[in-house]
């Protein structure tokens, strides 16, 4: 059922009623945007029944409409984006401001962003960025502080906007895997699979079962590698140097295994629409099982030491707390939700082969830095176990690079993939000639940046780095 | 919401981890070998015009020219290598850095050894100023986070570029060089120029990864502003997509006159 090909539905006029109905039936918005023909498209999904519903609406007349955020705050990011791209004003939206300052709206200038200010003698502002102290992507953070305490953090992004959607919409959509891998380079496999699955739906390609398994192995290796990278960074931020160096070295082993299979430490060039450029031979399979088994034990030993250390726990426990109600209301996704008591996992909600074999998702109740760190530890073990399980009965799998048929005409293809941060949603619409009309991308960071802003409230400003790394959100995935 | 420790033997657990960790540093990053699967410095021989032309058209960044292959555009995606294995052979030499942009445009005749012998030029001034202490300030300007992660990895316990007196610093005021990753977006152009201005002279510009060198996959993107590069010339180009930590370690140590 995932990915899914939809014929373009008739445009309806009952925007609020349809959305209210869908929310009443326990659906949540996976995408909401203004399409190339100015109609509004909304992809709603029900995590429990695994149903997807694609709705299309006539654009509201007169430049404004009563906001959907008033109906359900889950829409707040989508409506900010809609307003930024089209100028259509969602009335009574609580905080309408740009998401990424796109190139095709030159009248919106990033340098002039109106930051939230406080007219108070006792408050001060701390401006950080766009160039940060470490080796990391750019973004502007504006802290409103009273002494050491953060009352609010405003995060303003857009510095990374490359216009990648425009590039994806130009030319043959079947040859864009390299770009898809660069939507967010730390999620090359996640976005790569989302692209491939959308293309396969669009072109009606049949993908062999073994290919699905190889891709799932790549996706889970990417998850483990990035969780380990962040555990290393979190340990570094609290001066727990054994964790910093140990987890960095284990991550090297995981990504070097990816290099061993496909030639890239990030899994770039591994995938192609319809198949994989690099299969797994029985010789490689044996090597991967041996290496991953060692890595599993490496992680277990370091995790046991780190999460028993009272110094580590005293820094992590209770820091950067996000409550479950906010997670639901503001539509935070993926590991940011699962570490705060809310089960949101695309691998279970919108599954595809071989994820029917995947065990139950890990959910932790705390919602603090501890939970996000501990979840990463548990999930990296779970991912490696799943890789080992898939490898144990994976047949000799050669490369598989079929020539795909022409894309279907006048359809919308959607795909949902649970990357290591959370759900990645891609939607492609073709016109009556089969050319790409629009390519929409939703990285989990698009939703979760607000979670970081909430997490640092009422924390000391010196806790910001550890809060930030516990999420490790993507700037370019948001800015596109 | 206090978490209960899993066991009570903290010190024993930590010792176990330290013993298992052992020594992870690559003894000599300049002499080490990468996995044979790593696509490094390529060589190529034109077989016939037709297959060359097909390879040219299939290249996602236009790195393949009339008779040349441009390492500054190549994203090492392997399309040419997989489709025309007779024509394109990628060695596993990671020593791909160069001092001049033109050096990256290969004509296919140089062996990896011959390329490395002349690709990076150091000067007595650079050796004197930076040879024993070289501080880098990174600016990501539209980078997809892959080059940024690899630049970070060059300082990790495996690659440990710090052993050569090379360090990544937080403030441009402390820096000797700016390392740019990413294709340089319109929205970052101003911040990049300001960062460059904030670095005290003498200073050096390094471009890391295909995006920074040539725009890479984003060369035709509508939201780039690469005017900064018309004003400031880089003196080290580090190819890759992303650039491998060993390419970074080799390129920078060669630039400041450490052994090749």
Give an account of the 3D structure:
The complex is a heterodimer of chains A (480) and B (260). Chain A is globular and about 65 Å long. In chain A, strand 2 and strand 3 (40-46) form a beta hairpin. Chain A has a four-stranded antiparallel beta sheet with strand order 1-12-13-14. In chain A, strands 2-3-4 form a three-stranded antiparallel beta sheet. In chain A, helix 6 runs antiparallel to helix 15 (464-471), helix 7 packs antiparallel against helix 8 (282-306) and helix 8 (282-306) runs antiparallel to helix 13 (369-392). Chain A is α+β, with helices and mostly antiparallel strands and 480 residues long. The model of chain A has no long low-confidence stretch (mean pLDDT 93). Chain A contains 16 helices and 14 strands. Chain A has helices at 15-24, 76-86, 164-169, 177-181, 188-203, 209-237, 241-262, 282-306, 310-316, 324-329, 335-338, 346-349, 369-392, 444-455, 464-471, 476-479; strands at 4-7, 28-34, 40-46, 51-57, 64-66, 89-91, 124-128, 140-146, 149-156, 271-272, 275-276, 411-418, 423-430, 436-442. With 260 residues, chain B is an alpha/beta fold. Chain B is 32% helix and 13% strand. The longest helix of chain B has 13 residues, at 186-198. The radius of gyration of chain B is 20 Å and the shape is globular. The model of chain B has no long low-confidence stretch (mean pLDDT 91).
